[in-house]
Amino acid sequence: MKATNNPNVSNIALTGPYGSGKSSIIKTFRKKYGRPVLQISLAAFLPEADGSVTTGESEADASKKGAPKKPTPQKGTVSKQEIERSILQQMLYGADANSLPLSRFKRIETPKWWSKFTSLFIMAGLFSCWHVIKKSDEVLSGKFFEPLDLATNWLNLATFTIGFLFVWLAFHQVYIKSLGLSLKSISLKDIEITPETAKEESILNRHLDEIIYFFQATKYDLVIIEDLDRFNNPEIFVTLREINSLVNANAGVKRQIRFLYALRDNMFVNTDRTKFFEFIVPVIPIINSSNSIDKVLEHGQRLALDTRLDRQFLREVSRYLNDLRLIHNIFNEYGIYVANLETDGENILDANKLLAILIYKNVLPSDFEDLHRGKGKLAEILARHDDYVTSAEAKCKAEISELERQINDVEKLVPADVQELRNIYAMALLAMVPQDFTYLVINGQENIPIVSLPTRPDFDQIIEKDQILVRHGYYNQRQNVILRDFQKSVYPKATYQERKAQIELKAADHRDGAAKTIRDLRTKLSTLRTAKFNELIRANSREMEELFNAFGENRDLVRFLVIEGFLDDTYYQYTSLFHSGRLSPSDNKYLIQIRSFIYPEPDFQIDNPKEVIAAMREDDFRQKYVLNKALVDCMFSNQADYRTQIAKFVDYVSSNFSECEAFFAVYYQTGKCNRELLTTLVERWSGFVSAAIAAPDSAVHVARMIAHLPKSVLQILPRKAPGFQGFLARNLPRILALQVDFEPSQLALFSFEVDRLDSIEPYPAIARLLSDHGFYKVTLENLEFIVRDVLGVGEATALDTKNYSTLLQVAYRPLLDKVRADFDGYLKTVLLLPGNTEEDVAPIIEVINHDDIEVEHLERFIEQQTAVLPSLEQIPLRLQSTVFRLHKIAASWENCRTYLATESFDAQSLTAFLAEPGVTDVLSPIMIDDGKDAFGLRQFVIGNAEFDADTYRAYLRALPKRFSQFPDELGADKMRILIEEQKITFSTKAFTFLSEHTELQVMFVAKNIDQYLAQQDQYSIDDEFRERLLATGITDDRKLKIIEKMDLTSLAGQPRRASLVADILYRTDVDLGHLPSEAAQAIVLSPGPLKARIVLFNKCHGLLSDGEVKSTISQLPDPFSQIEPGWRQPTIANTPDNQEFVRWLEARSIISSSKPTIFTDEIRIYNRRK
């Protein structure tokens, strides 16, 4: 508005890209402008000038293909004169013809409301002229005007006046019309003379006077020109600007005329734009590839399509649509197509595909038109479908053949590799055999040549022996050959069996991997024909690139629609209405082929099977012709109408089953009556199930039977073919790998056991069903799979060490029922595995209480467990000795007492149990119950001669009471321990029991010295026994009491006894006045410390006579023995005891005198001379 009010602005540019909304802005502006506006649009030329209208093939392409060159439609080119003519026409013919009476461009004028009065005026004028001419003489004489009274001469006056006005107006119109006449050419019959410049000059400049007259005669002050930029002709803008300047400069135009141009941004470079336009208004686009989704969704809501269209598809396709008018038109057409294609009210068409078709139609209308005739770029892409399918099938089949060949080669290589391994070991063994020993002796009888050893079936057993016997080939001599380290000498890292297993395992792994790949390829192969078109295109996207490039700037849009599956070979369903007929061309082609003895493929398209069946001969149904998917669908969907044909079909299949594999492969994938077909075959052909499981595609047949047969029919399959369930168990992974969809509960109708559940790991629903129904063999691997993968419990690793405990903890009832149904087998195959050692107590007790399992297996199970059973109560009698023998019972006196009282008690087992150091450490600190119930246990412990000394001593300390007597048949070492531990009450009976073991008697008395001393008279013992008692560790006061009972006069002849008594008397410092002289002399002379003997001598010298004293001194060691009459002067140590000794010697005049020495601490004794 600002620019239109600016007197300095005459040329205004409204700039923006295509689809930016320039037209909408102009419409809004016109509503607000309020003054007359002339709008000129050149859209009429756009179909000719638009580059989107192109041919399907260029001349270059045609020449490459060898086609003759012919003119092909190219982009339309519109001349400047044509553009100017259109502008001039829209300008002049846009105004009313009556407003431009002087224009040379004649147009049909529409009579106005006053035209009736005009025609009446003409009639009156003609009448008046006729009347005046008739009265011409009177007019010339003047009588015609007399009298000048209207009342009397009104007719003459009126006719003259009207006639004059009529003639004047007629001449005036002639004059006006003559102003628009011009001479442009002269035409004489067939000859036209026209100036050359008239053809070449600008039409606008040629008719500049018309344009100026137009603005003089009309009230327009604004001219809006649209779509002028699409012709890429800047010269027209020069002409229009020149005209604008001339119009505004004309004196006859009293107002300023402005031209408003709507054009794209890149029409001029920046400097040119400012030269042409005084004011430029940029338009910010309201839609582009990033926000077009909003407009798409808006139209979807307008047509109530947002529930049918995929939001993601709309979001992605909108990136290729940036023209609002195009989007609007697409959705308008969508509404029309839906209304015509879905007349039955069922929304069976894919709304996304229909929208894709319409996008393609609006963006590429020419190619869409060609598509109806099977031509064009998209038709060429669609025509590649069969080529790609054939190529993919050939590739899959080639890969399958190669893998099968590899499997066959591997199977052949395994025996060869094993034989080569045998030869290696046989050669090594032969090198160990002495020369000329050519025969191997088997079982002591059979002689076989050593050279034939590698081919022997018992080769594996022979080389596993520690030694073999060989025989000389001539002398019949025999010799043993040691093979203990033979295998290590060949290969130290593995044994023969391990290497053989590695060869077989490697081959098995390769075979299994190749078999899995083959299954995948077969699955892919079976679905190629039914694969979606876009999937095939994606797989061959590189080869399609050239075809997509043919779409030019729209190639990305077409590629997206095709590869995403929105444009495919089903397009015809969305582009035309269906009209039914009797036979389609495809039906007719099928009938022609079978009449020519050509067998069509099983998936040959038949559009009207009922009509085709009616046209076929009766015998055709006993031929291979009947193996057509559409025909079988028709027959089995209308069985009542085609009983005869179905019977013949079954006869043919039963007689030629091997030739029907291709048909079944197709029909299983795409047929509609699989249930009816299979049911009929099972019921009418008794050998169908057996033939199916023996066929090359047996897994496919069984999978389809499970998927489609009703339960009532499935249940009879094992009766139809006894090997059916075994086949199912062996081949279930193959069956599932085919990806045939069926309800897992169908498998529950059979009874089979799968070897390896992990082979069906990719099929969790099947795995769950097999687990729920126990359709598997009980193995560690299967149990781990169920716990880990089926139940999703993270404790599967515990199954290796505590299998049954883990199963009980998981508490999966079907699994527990399965293992309990054959617990013996479960125990042997799983629980007795070497690693299963950590079972909990409760599961162990449950296991060992199975009475139907042999004892030796239960003992093995108990032995390998680390758990210790707490109580003997729940352990069956037949295993109680076992748990003690194997040390698998908790160490408690109660368990021992209970076991001792049972019928299964075994003393050796309990002894071995108690002798275990760990058990001893636990039980020895615990006192045994002192009640009557535990008496037998206490008696067993004290009388057990099998214990070692330490164990026996430890258990004696656990006895709460003493026994009154020593157990019978107990060794001296055990009785010694009994005495040491004081577990026998001291009595004459017990003392007498030890009569043959004097040392034990002595020990027994010593341990019970007080009881003995209190009753000494009851025990008949001698001084020798008392001597032994004195040598024990009893106290000196008790020893003195024993000495009192001894005959001390006998000490002279018993130096050891005398020494014992002397030591006791010395230590106790008792009065020795009661000793007899013989005893006194014996204790002084007894072996022992000299100091102690001098002390005793000092105490008892008074009991001796001088002669006895001298005799005693003479028997003392030096220097005391030197105290005797003579010249000697012995010296002794100067101690108080020696001083006492010298003193009483002097007193008894046994020595002369004594005195201490000067230089040493000694006493010098002076003997008497005589």
UniProtKB/TrEMBL annotation:
<keyword id="KW-0067">ATP-binding</keyword>
<dbReference type="InterPro" id="IPR048428">
    <property type="entry name" value="YobI-NTPase"/>
</dbReference>
<dbReference type="InterPro" id="IPR027417">
    <property type="entry name" value="P-loop_NTPase"/>
</dbReference>
<feature type="region of interest" description="Disordered">
    <location>
        <begin position="52"/>
        <end position="80"/>
    </location>
</feature>
<feature type="domain" description="YobI-like P-loop NTPase">
    <location>
        <begin position="3"/>
        <end position="378"/>
    </location>
</feature>
<keyword id="KW-0472">Membrane</keyword>
<keyword id="KW-0547">Nucleotide-binding</keyword>
<dbReference type="Pfam" id="PF20693">
    <property type="entry name" value="YobI-ATPase"/>
</dbReference>
<feature type="transmembrane region" description="Helical">
    <location>
        <begin position="153"/>
        <end position="171"/>
    </location>
</feature>
<keyword id="KW-0812">Transmembrane</keyword>
<dbReference type="GO" id="GO:0005524">
    <property type="term" value="F:ATP binding"/>
</dbReference>
<keyword id="KW-1133">Transmembrane helix</keyword>
<feature type="region of interest" description="Disordered">
    <location>
        <begin position="1"/>
        <end position="21"/>
    </location>
</feature>
<feature type="compositionally biased region" description="Polar residues">
    <location>
        <begin position="1"/>
        <end position="13"/>
    </location>
</feature>
<protein>
    <submittedName>
        <fullName>ATP-binding protein</fullName>
    </submittedName>
</protein>
